[in-house]
Amino acid sequence: MPDVLRPPAPAQHPATLCHHGIRREDPYLWMHKLHSADMLAHLEAENAFATAVMAETLPLQEQLYAEMLARIQEVDLSVPVRFGAWMYYSRTEQGAQYAIHCRKRITDVGWESSAEEVLLNENLQAHGKPFYEVGDYEVSPSGRYLAWTEDTRGQREYTLRLRDLFTGKTLSQRRRGVTSLCWAEDDMTLFYVSEDPKTHRANKLWRLRLFEGQDTQLFEEHDERFNLLVFKTRSLGYIVANSSSHTTSEARILPADRPEGRWRIVCRRRAGIEYEVDHHSDHLLLRVNDTGPNFRLVHVPLKQGGGFDTWQEVIPHRDDVILEGVDIYRDWRVTSERIDGVPRLAVARLADGHNHCLSFDDPTFMVDLEDLPEWETPSLRYTYESMTTPDSIYDYDPITQVSTLLRRQPVLGDFDPTHYRSERLHALAADGTQIPISLVYRTDIARNGNAPVWLDGYGAYGMASDPWFSSTRLSLLDRGWVFAIAHVRGGGELGQRWHDDGRLEHKENSFGDYIACAETLIAQGFTRAGRILAQGGSAGGLLIGAVLNRRPELFGAAILEVPFVDVLTTMLDPDLPLTIGEYEEWGDPRHKRDFLRMQAYSPYDNLAPRPYPPLLVEAGLHDSQVMAWEPAKYVARLREVKTDPHPVLLFTNMSAGHGGASGRYDTLHERARQLAFALTRLPTGA
Q1: Quick one: pLDDT at residue 3?
Q2: Same domain for 16 and 90?
Q3: Do the domain assignments include residue 330?
């Protein structure tokens, strides 16, 4: 092998770790000094090696980039949303990486002919910065002031900025480490939550007065498992400060028109009880799991103080229906629900309780209620997409029950949804559990057991991996690939029980479920062993790393994006961001039982002399969730122990963090690299 294609050989510094009398050798522990000269040089060397190996795919990457860009309508406009006296929207311009946020004033003759006001041009804010991302974005009640947060490094550390929209001047007040915010009704008071600069835990609630120098700290969350979030109810009646861990929550409320008033706890925290708060007229609404894991909905009268004896059940707990969310308007209540993992929207008229559900035809799809800010809206708005239907926005008249399509994500070129088919299958796990699989492919593929399959997986934190549409995915499908999502336990597709059955002592279920999904796709005649690309990011990277240690022969390639693969070392360090808060998800390795359980599946600790498929591993230097040393250590040890000649590539974005590149064109280049890796490692017809 020429020197230019020889992988980096990082130094090994013997380090022995000992916990519970168990010794572990970690010769790459030195990589934890992430910004040291040696580590930065190593990451640059890895990038150079990966670039050299992938050089032969550059023409393909350029072709893929051109294909994907040609499908995108570069000059685009979002669906406007009414708030107060204006219609708000965002737009993009050709060649510009980021969005431009605008509004037009509503007049007696409408709003379209009004002059456009540019509130925030992300491209100007991002000028000269390698990374830019807007977090929160809130306009004050009168429409005069804009508060937004921005991250310029990819660390997900956001800085609060304020702008007077009437004068166009940006105020001098700025605050670092802001995670959420909302305006009081007086137009001069902003509530915000700040994070601990070391652990990035959202832990302090503040009150800021415009043009005043000193903010007032209102509350500090001392329990390191909990994070704070502040928001205002759609009714505009209350500010809510929600404190939650992965399993428990507690909310405080304050009348939004009395910013210096007294906060009140809705319901004190009880271990294992989660609830969410909303407001309507003389009562609060709580989505709460106190009678079962699928949640119920209750009214809590405001005047009686909210004791349990005053709770009035509106929707009971149901064993077969998961109550995922509740949206309240003046006249309507909309609940987001799932049955057997399939989402639906249920609409109730508050005047008389009449209710109905929206139905959809696709076998697998996503539907979400849009967060319209207008309390008295006569219509609702939802987004719908499936693996064959681009993101679509509808206005829905709940009286006539008619949906009107406002906008469908344009897919330029010769895209025809009838050329693709989506399905929902089930795999049988070892314990008899049915594991859903969502998949999409061209209708003209030969189902001869030879198609390459991209198998996506996540399975953590109770987060559902919904079947989304992707125009970039068409470059795979049109080359004869099948794309599938393994809805493994640990996610939220089938509710809290599904999450519980894939965390803590049940985490092994996630790995077995993913393997069962791969085997089912083989048994169903879509593919064969060695023709599957395994892909997962973050906690999904842990899933893929663990699966590769168990059944590497099933897979012909793998892509691990910012993978959480050094589980034990990370979870043993309480000073790292997220660690303590995630004991409820993974366990606390300071306890021997949890340590042994995590040691049994931690991908880094279980690499062994065996063949592995070709791997593309991606990291972000500024990642504050999965430190870049995790994928770097994993790649170094994997090369050291594996018994095959397949390449293991590590790309580190030296200007970004957990989410990769921020600009839309830069993101396409990263996607083109992934697809080129997949297409060259698993060519169609091989």
Answers
A1: 43
A2: no
A3: no
Do 182 and 201 share a domain, yes or no? yes
**Beta-strand runs (E) in 216-364:** 216-220, 227-232, 238-244, 249-255, 264-265, 275-280, 283-288, 296-301, 312-315, 322-328, 332-339, 342-349, 355-358
* Residue that is last in its domain, among 120, 143, 158: 120
Cα distance between residue 619 and residue 83, in whole Å: 39
β-pairing verdict for 532-537 and 453-457: parallel
Name all contacts of 100-109 with Cβ < 8 Å and 24+ positions apart: 101/137, 103/143, 104/80, 106/82
Q: Mean per-residue pLDDT for 595-610?
A: 97
573 conformational bin, left if phi > 0, alpha if psi -120 to 50, beta if neither: beta
Exposed/middle/buried for residue 449 (C-beta within 10 Å: 0-12, 13-18, 19+): middle
- The secondary structure of 494-549 as a DSSP string is T-HHHHHTTSGGGTHHHHHHHHHHHHHHHHTTS--TT-EEEEEETHHHHHHHHHHH
Q: Quote the domain boundaries for residue 241.
A: 129-279
In angstroms, how far is the first alpha carbon of the chain from the final one? 25
402 bridge partner residues: 397
**Residue 590 CB: number of other CB atoms within 10 A?**
13
Total Cβ atoms within 10 A of residue 199: 18
Classified as helix, coil or strand, 669 is: helix
Residue that terminates a domain, selected from 256, 279, 302: 279
Contact present, 585 and 504 (Cβ < 8 Å): yes
Q: For residue 461, is it within any domain?
A: yes
Tokens of 29: 């522990």
* 484 and 608 both lie in a single domain: yes
Q: 312-315 and 322-328 as β-strands: parallel, antiparallel, unpaired?
A: unpaired
Name the residue with tokens 């008033």: 261
Enumerate the β-bridge partners of residue 19: 22
Would 601 be classed as within a structural domain? yes
Looking at the structure, tell me whether residues 37 and 145 fall in a common domain: no
Q: What kind and span of H or E run contains 385?
A: strand 380-386
- CATH, residue 667: 3.40.50.1820
Buried b or exposed e, range 252-266, using 16+ CB within 10 angstroms: bbbbbeebeeeeeeb
Residue 502 lies in a domain: yes
Asked whether the beta carbons of 271 and 247 are under 8 A apart, the reply is: yes
Question: What would the two tokens of residue 400 be?
Answer: 């006539």
Contact 654, 42 (CB under 8 A): no
The answer to whether residue 308 scores a pLDDT higher than 80 is no
- Work out how many domains the chain is built from and give that number: 3
156 and 237 housed in the same domain: yes
**Do 514 and 484 meet the contact criterion of CB atoms below 8 Å apart?**
no
- Mean of the per-residue pLDDT values of the chain: 95
For 640, the enclosing helix (H) or strand (E) is: helix 629-641
201 and 104 in one domain?
no
pLDDT for residue 4 is more than 70:
no
Q: Are residues 535 and 610 in the same domain?
A: yes
Burial of 68 (0-12, 13-18, 19+ CB in 10 A): buried
As annotated, the active-site residues are: 538, 623, 658
Q: 58 and 65 in contact (C-beta within 8 Å)?
A: no
Interval 340-387: pLDDT, tens: 889 999 999 999 989 999 989 889 999 999 999 999 999 999 999 999
Examine the domain organization and report whether 518 and 649 are in the same domain.
yes
Q: What is the CATH number of the domain that holds 180?
A: 2.130.10.120
* pLDDT, tens only, 29-77: 999 999 999 999 999 999 999 999 999 999 999 999 999 999 999 999 9
What whole-number distance in Å separates Cα of residue 604 and Cα of residue 564?
A: 9
pLDDT digit string (tens) for 113-126?
Answer: 999 999 999 999 99
